[in-house]
Amino acid sequence: MTQRKPPGMDFESWIDRQIREAQERGEFDGLPSAGKPLPDAGRALEEDWWIKRKVREEEGAAGLPPSLVLRKEAETARARALAARTEDEARAILGEMNARILDALRKPLSGPPLTLMPFDVDEVLRERKEAAGGA
Questions:
Q1: pLDDT score recorded for residue 2
Q2: Is it the case that residue 52 has pLDDT exceeding 70?
Q3: Separation of alpha carbons 117 and 119, rounded Å
Q4: With b meaning 16 or more CB within 10 Å and e meaning fewer, what string describes 27-66?
């Protein structure tokens, strides 16, 4: 638990003492980045740099609200359906994703509002056929 600064003690001295005592207890030993240079040291950082880095590290999904994760998964499912080897495989991908979208619409997820609607399977299959050169 964090202690209160004793009256009359300089803040810097109090903080230095806490750090020294923690070092003596070994609380800084074995940290994951120990002995490694700081990432982006000396570079100018943009606004919200730490959020953007965390999202990149987590591949855009981990730690995000479920509604945003579902949006990302829907984009991926659509791309997979367009690249599917067979129409049946594309239908299965879209059917599974549509079931998840409908479930999320019935039981709202946390995070930003879900503005996602189920895929029009026939429309996506038409796009798939056109992309493959068929009419």
A1: 63
A2: yes
A3: 6
A4: eeeeeeeeeeeeeeeeeeeeeeeeeeeeeeeeeeeeebee
